[in-house]
Amino acid sequence: MTATDPAPSNGPVYGRTYDEGRAAETAALRDLAASLPARLTGGVWRPEWRRVLFAGIGASCAALASPLYALRAAGVDAARSDCSDYPAAAGRPDVVVALSQSGRSRETADLVTRFRRAGVPTLAVTNADESPLRDAAGAALTLGAQPDSRVSTTGFVVTYAALGMLADVAAHGTVDERWRELPDLIEESVARNAAVLADFAAGPLARGSADVVASAPQLTTAEAVALLLREGPLVPSAAYGTRAYLHGPMDCASEDTSHLVVGGARELGLARQLLEKPTGVLTVTDGSEPVPRGAAAVTVPGRLTAPQRALVEVCVLQELVAATAAVRGNPVDEVAFAREDTKIAALAEL
Q: Domain range for residue 122?
């Protein structure tokens, strides 16, 4: 089978290794940031769409969280669904925006099909140029079919960035210029933090599980990185919002669970509390406030929107995923399961 052949529903073809995908993703982002704004301001979004349902599953659902927060902060009535939790009788949004890197996620295509039949405008955002989701939706924003890795790198970056730019247009009518700066900022941030991440992988993350906790604006980071840790180095990982984590889940902190804490002052306060236990803590902040003694510290640029910062954070923490896989001896590109009933080759399968 070649990369251009249709893939069976339980065995997608991956055009890149994880390392190759990471090496290619900033170039893909640079091209997207230069070309996509003109497409987005050319009528993709209608100003009357003020009640928005975002839909996606897996990494795509994680990608929805920070753009969702940004839209709500701008006064847009936005919600998200993992597609399986939104029955046909649920409310009627102004538009459904469905995100899928491959465009073949079964639940996403099914939800879009149902809403389009009910007369609701539907917009698919996919890396793939041709896909069942594009066929199901009333309109599509396709992103050039970038080759991707099994544990998604380039595909996640371009679909997430496209959604972030689309959220800019929905909230403010234009795309924030700082998306063009992100490729350089990502490369600089990865290089600056690589040694700290390698040490944390070889120390606290060499065994046990991980909790990834983030402020509400940065929730995409927590959800996406927890999934990367599970799918790549096979680290049992869970994602939480900071406020929810304070209400009980933090109580099992021990040397068997590492913590990645993403955000600002409240998250640094959480890190201080966690360090009362014999546990490893890695903070991810903009460096504007002191990190508690005993925590490993990663810094990212602070002059970004929440969705932009989340993308930088995810790309930086991809380095931690690679280092942890090497330490644990679990190759990122090794397939754990042959997936069943998750991907479709055509709408007829629904």
A: 18-175+334-349
